[in-house]
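HUMAN: Forgive my ignorance: could you write out one protein's sequence and backbone structure tokens?

ASSISTANT:
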Amino acid sequence: MLVYFIVYILVIAMTFQKHNSCSDRGKCIFFLFFLGFLGYFRCFDVGADNIVYSLNFNMTTMNPNSFSAYTEFEIGFSYVIAFFKRIISTDYLTFMGALYVFWMISFYRFTSFFKEGYMLTLFVGISLLYFTHSYNAMRQTFALSLYIYTLPLLFSTKKYSLSLYIGLCILIGMLFHRTLIILGLLPLYRLPIIEKFLYKKKLLVCLTFMSLLAFVLKGSIYSLLSKASIFLDLLGERYSEYYEVAENAEKTASIFSAILDTFIVSLCIWLLPIKHKYYTFFVFSLFCGIFCQNLLGVLSALFLRVSMNFFLFEIIAIAIILNEKKLSMCKIILVAYCILIFVKAIVKNFDDIVPYTNQLFV
């Protein structure tokens, strides 16, 4: 785990050091390159699902009958494996390394699109575990890597941009990771009735905390989902299985973590400047994310993958707040939260983060 801490401490030091915009961008590129190096050359045991993923990888050919031999992969991801094996390499770790490098490239695109501080965005992204968890959430991270390039459509005012955005969300979701389909709901933030609601901060914060009632109403939520099980079937057999065991699931979202996350989301909603050009979008994505996390996480921690898609934008929301020049207790709380999430994940380790080893130094 020492490697994770060393990289994290260096990122913190470089983030809060005085710099100009050019050096900020250069430092971010350097760290993304270094993280890409770590991801590309990681050993086989770095990642929770490598055994079953490698079995699928080894069995996959251009014949669709060979797809998903040991665990379900979306058809698009299986074809990516098949083409990679035919054109580039039949080595499993080379394939996973390539996916991780693509994630680094896409994350740079993500930071440069919003331009809320390159190193700040990287610091928050590492803190919220979007780099360490990507060793496990490989298909979802690949889908998010592709999704990032649809963002210009989401904010475009051109005639068919939103229709194209929604279509691409559905396409990327069905081909690579079905949870991504839910991001097709994000254009709803543009509806006048929803936009007006998003400016009522006090009401939003109250509703955000009310989502914690899910921990009391677990049975009702389970019954409600049973009536909408057809949508779970669209997500694939894996999520249907999650739902089937949810009623007696041993591993659900922690109430203490849920309270802390809900508080931080509420704080972000409260602190986000209304004058920011993407204010309504960030508030809407945070609001959707915390509701998904609390309502679905109470059934099974495995469902938290759905909220992970919305919380990609929490990275930028926190960066916007930290980027303000005036120092405040709220900013200190947000920085402390980021550090806490990272340190707790590394030290306590919920079987999600595996000690790092490198192929070149073993």
In short: The mean pLDDT is 86. Residues 60 and 245 are 29 Å apart (CA to CA). DSSP finds 19 helices and no strands in the chain.
